[in-house]
Design a protein that fits this description.
Number of strands of chain B: 11
Shape of chain A: globular
Number of helices of chain A: 0
Radius of gyration of chain B: 13 Å
Order of helices and strands of chain A: EEEEEEEEEEEE
Largest sheet of chain A: 6 strands, mixed
Helix content of chain A: under 10%
Oligomer: heterodimer
Strand content of chain B: over 45%
Number of helices of chain B: 0
Chain lengths: ~110, ~120
Amino acid sequence: AQKVTQAQTEISVVEKEDVTLDCVYETRDTTYYLFWYKQPPSGELVFLIRRNSFDEQNEISGRYSWNFQKSTSSFNFTITASQVVDSAVYFCALTTNRDDKIIFGKGTRLHILP
Amino acid sequence: NAGVTQTPKFRILKIGQSMTLQCAQDMNHNYMYWYRQDPGMGLKLIYYSVGAGITDKGEVPNGYNVSRSTTEDFPLRLELAAPSQTSVYFCASSLGQGAGYHEKLFFGSGTQLSVL
């Protein structure tokens, strides 16, 4: 069965600091998909990135970057020069090509302090 | 383009009452999902469907039922509401292209349910 672990329950950083959110996953399948979603205080869920297991390239999108390492089963998310608007709960999620369930981690609540 | 529409947005139920949470998508997505999010917690999968007529249990299916008679609609039924079902419920859909190929989820805005 799949499992997603986000060990950091809550993180607080001062604005403009860099912060990394950890995501460790477990699956026996070789083809799988990883996702990150953001849930701001308003409550909606916003898609950030999707990565399949065959694409280990790191991704950068503005101040956001993702580091995918199959060797450590990790898909970590870094925010550079954080801003107050980045304050949210961030979820990592996993599904595989043999199981259509999409399983979420418990989320990391990020506070960016002005 | 409405995306994923959930109704109602808020509901208060008494213990033992029943209700149906509605979810509809207009993107012709095959895959649909129901999640619950307890206060301060993550998303737990209740039920999911990979197409009309096909449903399957998720991580926490007890106390719920679903049906998928059309591609567009995926209602979630609570038969005998209990306080433990107090939660925010999210419906989501994605363009499943078969053979286990998964795209991103599109989420509804959620239904906040309180059972008293």
